[in-house]
């Protein structure tokens, strides 16, 4: 019925989505293309573990949204299914101290959390290695978003313990994969020399995907997530173009989902370019949202203060921060550095009329957008 007014309109019990879950952040895609050489290098480094030896340590780096976490999840999935190698991925944005990292490892090995009170690090560590030796197992630990351990000054201690496990506990075999999304951080350079001397990792780099790769990957995702014909080629191309501008595949996946929701809002069976453009106003902040989500209370407080004092000198910002939180200058400058490294704020040195140089602090995003997401 070509002139049916309901044609192309969605009824209440219909959806453009076949499976909305495929657009969620923790979804591990079935197919993982355009990362063949990186997967090869990682497998090469892990192969000794399968033979019962200590694997090669590896550093994985690359900008956000380039498939680093997914690569490790895929490999660990294979290791668990096909070998006896133990593996655990620690999200350092959540577990950002040595103790927290080892608690997570403990939990993965024993299947229950360590007692939350009173157990020393040494004991925790000892129980982990005893178990590995007893079970004759090799362990691979992935420290995902390891940059967060650096921001908290916990990276050297954590790595030192992991890398020297076989010396402190004879027979323990542990390999480490560290994953960093912060390209301005020179991981090796920032470690203590005692760690540098035992850490000679293989390096695997994940560059941003080009627009053709992005179209290819997102087409696959759209096919799984939407009913047939919901997203056409011009719409997909626009999504890919916007994603390539940001370089983060997460933007594209979020765009697809939001564009689908926008189409549903119009009760349309198909996504149009307008749905994509509108979605972009939110999706372009996905990286910001992710960075803000991991912040502590005092870190959030400073973001709020800077939003209200956007562009002012560091001294003035400190006064306001101190008034709000009661925290001192040392903590203030630590947090400032962390926010700067996370790309949430920008600190620019300026000459202040003959009185030397001072830092002006401003948000790297529109203050409204930041405050909305706090
Ligand atoms: N080659 C790929 N094929 C399919 N999906 C991918 C691919 N690379 C990344 N993704 C998807 O993009 C998003 C970001 O990937 P992720 O591995 O979390 O990036 P990173 O850890 O580098 O920030 C995830 O939703 C992931 O499923
Ligand atoms: Mg990641």
Automatic annotation (TrEMBL):
SMART domains (UniProt xref): AAA, Cdc6_C
Gene3D superfamilies: 1.10.8.60, P-loop containing nucleotide triphosphate hydrolases, Winged helix-like DNA-binding domain superfamily/Winged helix DNA-binding domain
GO biological process, one term: cell division
InterPro entries associated with the record: AAA+_ATPase (IPR003593), AAA_22 (IPR049945), Cdc6_C (IPR015163), Cdc6_lid (IPR055237), ORC1/CDC6 (IPR050311), Orc1/Cdc6_arc (IPR014277), P-loop_NTPase (IPR027417), WH-like_DNA-bd_sf (IPR036388)
MF GO annotations: ATP binding; ATP hydrolysis activity
Residues covered by the AAA+ ATPase domain: 54-203
Residues reported to bind ATP: 66-70, 209, 221
Keyword terms of this UniProt record: ATP-binding, Cell cycle, Cell division, DNA replication, Nucleotide-binding
Residue span, Cdc6 C-terminal domain: 302-374
Pfam families recorded: AAA_22, Cdc6_lid
NCBIfam families, alphabetized: orc1/cdc6 family replication initiation protein, PRK00411.1-2, PRK00411.1-5
Protein task: Involved in regulation of DNA replication.
PANTHER family, per the entry: CELL DIVISION CONTROL PROTEIN 6 HOMOLOG, CELL DIVISION CONTROL PROTEIN 6-RELATED
Record-stated family: Belongs to the CDC6/cdc18 family.
Name of the molecule in the record: ORC1-type DNA replication protein
Annotated source species: Halogranum gelatinilyticum
């Amino acid at each position: 019925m070509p002139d049916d007014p309901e044609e192309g309109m969605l009824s209440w019990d219909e959806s453009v989505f076949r499976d909305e879950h495929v657009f969620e952040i923790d979804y591990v895609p079935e197919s993982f293309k355009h990362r063949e050489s990186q997967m090869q290098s990682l497998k090469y480094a892990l192969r000794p573990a399968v033979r019962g030896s200590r694997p090669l340590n590896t550093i994985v780096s690359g900008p956000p949204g380039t498939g680093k976490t997914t690569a490790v999840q895929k490999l660990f999935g294979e290791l668990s299914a096909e070998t006896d190698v133990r593996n655990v991925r620690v999200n350092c944005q959540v577990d950002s101290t040595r103790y927290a990292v080892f608690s997570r490892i403990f939990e993965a090995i024993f299947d229950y959390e360590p007692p939350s009170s009173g157990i020393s690090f040494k004991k925790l560590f000892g129980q982990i290695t005893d178990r590995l030796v007893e079970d004759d197992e090799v362990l691979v630990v992935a420290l995902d978003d390891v940059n967060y351990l650096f921001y908290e000054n916990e990276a050297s201690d954590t790595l030192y313990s992991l890398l020297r496990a076989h010396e402190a506990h004879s027979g323990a075999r542990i390999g480490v994969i560290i994953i960093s999304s912060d390209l301005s951080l020179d991981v090796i350079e920032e470690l203590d020399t005692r760690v540098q001397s035992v850490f000679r990792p293989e390096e695997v780099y994940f560059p941003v995907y080009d627009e053709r790769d992005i179209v290819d990957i997102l087409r696959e995702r759209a096919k799984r997530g939407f009913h047939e014909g919901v997203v056409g080629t011009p719409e997909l191309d626009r999504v890919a173009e916007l994603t390539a501008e940001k370089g983060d595949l997460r933007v594209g996946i979020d765009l697809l989902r939001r564009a689908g929701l926008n189409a549903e809002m119009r009760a349309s069976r198909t996504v149009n370019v307008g749905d994509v453009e509108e979605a972009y106003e939110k999706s372009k902040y996905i990286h910001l949202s992710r960075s803000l989500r991991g912040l502590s209370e005092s870190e959030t407080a400073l973001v709020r203060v800077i939003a209200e004092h956007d562009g002012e000198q560091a001294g003035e910002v400190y006064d306001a921060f101190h008034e709000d939180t009661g925290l001192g200058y040392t903590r203030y400058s630590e947090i400032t550095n962390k926010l700067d490294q996370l790309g949430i704020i920008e600190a620019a040195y300026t000459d202040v009329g003959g009185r030397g140089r001072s830092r002006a602090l401003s948000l790297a995003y529109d203050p409204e957008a930041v405050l909305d997401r706090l």
